Batch of 2 targets.
Target 1
Amino acid sequence: MDPSGTFFTHYAGDRSLVRTRAQWACLALLLLVLATLPWWASERWVSIGYTTFITAVAVVGLQICTGYAGQINLGQSAFMGVGAYGAALAMAAGWDALAALLIGGMGAALFGVMFGLTAARIKGFYLALTTIAAQALFHFLVLNLPQGWLGGAGGLHVEAVTVLGISLGSDRAIYWFSYAVLIVMTLGALGIVRSRHGRSFEAVRDDDVAAGMMGIPVAATKARAFLVSSFYAGVAGGLWVVALRHVSVEQFTLFNAIWMIAMVIVGGLGSIVGALVGTAMIQLAREGVTSLGPSFVQWVPAVGQDFVFAAMNVLLGTVIILFLLFEPKGVMHRVQITKKAYRLWPFPY
Amino acid sequence: MIDFFNYLINGFLQGQIYALLALGFMVIYRASKVFNFAQGELMMLGAYAVWTLTVGVNLPLWLAIPLAFVCAVAYGWLIERLFFERLVGESVFSMVMVTIGLVILIRGVVLVVWGAADKSFPVLLPPAPLIVGEMIFPSNLVIGAALTLVVTLAMSWFFNRTRMGLTLTAVAEEPSTAISLGISVKRAVTLAWMMGSVIATAGAMVLLSGRSITVQTADLALASLPVALLAGLESIGGLILAGAIVGIVQALVAAYVDPVIGGSASSIVPFVFMLLILLVRPTGLFGWRHVERV
């Protein structure tokens, strides 16, 4: 709901995402802070920044598939890997980074939609479980295709990356590039979920039999959700290559895919902003533990370094389960409730 | 020709071991409609429990193995008490999500308690091969397969013939109706998780005997996923056939295709095979067809 006194006289206003001047101001401030971050923050923050942006692209895609279309997708990490290999091949051939990202995204989408297409026959959990096969297939293909194609276990290396003639050599350049890509991809996702397709995703999620009766092609919609989701994963994989200039098969594990699902859960299923918030929260928590770990070991030398890293998994695993038990709709849902209560105060409704 | 039969029988035996791991998934699914993504982690937890009892505390095997099962019952109960008890009546989707959280949590717990270094798992099953005429069977596989057959048939009987087993099925199908008929959903789900953990521990003993274990061991359970899906998630008896099919196909591919292409096609064959079967029969070989109403 909107704050008191805010009402629109045009349809365009009613469907706008940013609704008040204060919201515009906050958004602009946030975008500005993030955009200028490389100038005033340390290099460590810059690298944390771009890893978060890259993960966020994949998680936004996963949000569309799992949060909107209701299809549990455990292949996101493998799809990201496919995109990374596609983009790495394109970049190694001297293509522009933007073109390489597109190649990566389309390659991943092609791979992902194969699993979506099985939706024509397979339903429910069987469908979710077949996405695990994506992980197995990806590993197999990379490791067993001829050494010259994808580099086998050693992976691929990319020398230099340029976008529109600008070199993406420094951490700052990578930061701004992935920031720009994230913004574009987020806008795209917001567009998709507000469109006809987004609405049919939600209908299929809530009840696929009913959705089918309303004339929504259920199997095609599920396939489309996988297509979009794996395209996002592929673009994220491309960014991964831009950032690391190296891609190998062990960077994309099933465990990573599980972390991405965790980010979606913490942020809130069925909210694009939630995907961003969830990614930022979990990535920052992981980074926090990683960087605070050594100093914690200095204070309390009794616990070893290994213990701290292991404890991080326990901590974050617990946090995720607690979210599911007590806040199953994620942070964004709580934010919405609080906002509504604040606007209505002192009335209950 | 004798080679062919050797591959065939060894594939069959290996497939039965996968079936034992798949049984863990299935038992929990049959009793609560929850697909437990943390089944591999349960197996790993069982493996570490066995390791601690045998290598760590140095108990004799006849004492350590029953104790390991007691531990499995204990953490199965604990997981249900901590997490799933609160989710009774919630959607299956959120319960499945909790099992995904469990994957991260259990891996963390194992790292905290046992560390990241490799541990060598004790030899529980005799490694000497069994030789019958010209056929050679690894005796650990034979014992494992025999155990699988016994446990699977027992579970199949339990779920289809006993009152308690039918109660569990009722709980999975329609929890609210089950409650109104006086069935304790909590007790049913607890029992399911205990059985799931015990079977996972048994699977760990058979699969890992004489190998080394790390956190990555949990991934091994995923290899059993095609077996579970092929059988159809509801059919426990079907596991034996599905395990045999997957095992034999994998063994034959490993024997005849891998040397030709110079890669490990056999690792991927179960998944491809599973996808193809599911495209023809979406509920697996023996899964239940559900009539959906709106």
Target 2
Amino acid sequence: MASDRDLWERARGGDAEAFGDLYERHARAVQSYCLWRTADLQVAEDATATVFLEAWRKRGHLTLSTDSAAPLLLGIANNVVRRQWRSQRRYRDALERVRNVGPIPNDLEAEAIARLDAIQQLREGGEAIRKLPRREREVLALLAWSDLSYGEIAEALGLPVGTVRSRLARARTRLGDAFPDTTAARPAEETL
Amino acid sequence: MTKPKPDLSPLLPDDATLKARRSALVDAVGPGGQGPRPAPAWRRRGPRLALGGGVALAAVAVALIVSAGGDNPSKAFAVKPQKGGGVTIKIYSLEDASGLEQALEEAGIKSQVTWLPAGKVCREPHYKPSIVHFPGGGSFGGMNMGGPGGITIGISSTKALRESFGQRRRGEISADEVANITLDPEAFRPDQSVVLSGTPAPYDGDPEGGSITKMGVAEGPVEPCKLVPALPSGFGAFGFSEGGGPAYAPRGDEALPQAAITADLRQAANSAEASDTQVEAPPGPGQYLYAKTKVVQLQGWLPKGHGKGSKTHPRYFVPINDPSAHYALVPALKEVWTAPDGKTHVRETLGRVNFLSSANQRLWDDAGSPPPWAFDPSEHDVSRDGSGRRLKDFAANSFRGRHEFTYMSRLSRLPTEPEALRLAVENRRGGSSPLDPSPAESPRGGATVERLLEILSEPIASPALRAAAFNALAEIPGIGFERDVTDGAGRRGDAISWVRENGFGRRFIFDPHTGKVLAEAEMIFGPKASEEYGAPADTPYRETAYLQAGIVNSTHERLK
């Protein structure tokens, strides 16, 4: 299986199929993150597509400094969520095309109920983080809702690792018991 | 320390959707992304046809193709063994239906496969729909798929499927190796079989660039497929509110023969065809969609001393479910300016409150004409206009939010051929249930009528689309038709109406000379509702009369 680096290099050279592979690999992670940030399915779906369109447009200027494309894409996601409308307007036509694709569920009600439940949980689960000041919110959101390490978060947000740590410490003080569980499914690296 | 993270999976795309979106993305960014479009990527790769979309119920049906190589593009489909037992069948082109039936049979699944010419689907129902229950939970009743790409059917035991799904989740198997749907022969009863049909469909400017495929589960015998026109592409994302209901019955002039109703609706279609479009396109940057309506609501007034709610701010106007209330029709002029991002500016101006009885009108006047709650200055920011009418301005979001205009532009892409339009709105829920177009006998039919009427109510609907909607309505038997009724703005027209068992119903009033919907109303029709609320039959309890719609350049601008 080609690495993210290979795929990204091919995408930078204009290979749309390689870029498609990256999409398949990371779209769910990006969408999960956007869901957490926005707690709105339609907004998150549009934001996800926007992230990839933005990545494609800027591919010439962006290099992967990690083995995974996730920090790069989640960094873009962070900006897209922050400037939702402005980013999406640029890609209106393309978004329309991506949005129209998809299945018709056989059981709309069951699906709708499952979605409502999940949205409800999202809203409750992310409430504390969404109330934080922006800088702390962005760092903590990436820590809580993506599988990025501290180093990768720093990469995604273009910050030194030390700044990531200090912002997290401030968020921890502010949130107290409401500080989210960030221990799950995390590689060992971030204990550095 | 904290609650575990919620499961987001209902909010994430399934594999088939992910693949479909990937292909749309690749098309959007690829060489044809700007300017002329190349053929879809799947076609350039050789294999021809049919992309998968939806897996419906709990048994998220995903499987693996063991060997990625060795495909023979010259064949209509390829059968490959799977690692954990079973096979996958990858369909490349909509040919050799009997060969595919045989391959499915050999793998343990009885089937009827029908490949249809472009623009056709099987008329439903041609079999009795059924549901397969998988061992250990989950079920499958069918699915529709649309878009570019190639469908892959997996056939394996549910156990093997779950194991491979685990590998997939752990990243041991790439997403390329995933089937669109996996069937477990053990889960099928002897009388159950799969019904598969597919047709090429327009995709990305190419009339046969994509496909629509449909898989159902049948119980007992399957009738041969009878061809009818197909759905338009992009139909999957089209949403209307659910309508109809089991207790739904047409209401109207019973003396009117069906032929007369049909003739009137055809005439309305001709008028619609010859009329103009109110709004040609959604607003661009800096523009607003301006819509003016008159909304009339039935409200109850409680004389002084009988107010409801808090002691300091009692409410004297209540919804119509209070037997001690005096009923009045409360009209308001509602103007809405909607920006391209779905944000709206709303102005509501209160009209003259009309009590159903003149005695109550006097009682209310003598009490100092207290305003309805929505215009009560102690509750809301209410001012007065030059004529002394109470009004309020506020910002809101369109109920369809930022998708308002996406919705509208989708509307403009609906087919303008009546049968295709009817199927497009009728098959919205997946088309896997029997279809009965009669509103008198089925909730589906009722929903179809309601959706066609909603299309007619949209200001952006083109003359051709409105004509198609009227012609589609003309084909539906048992519609309730009322001649010469008056809307909340005093305009006369004909109406399509129905009533539910509880005595409440809906009425869409249209102008037979222009084919435009004048108003839609939720009505008190039957004695049951009428007795319960003490309001005479034929009273609207909420009516929206459409007065004007068009594009303007500011939230102060109105239409001439």
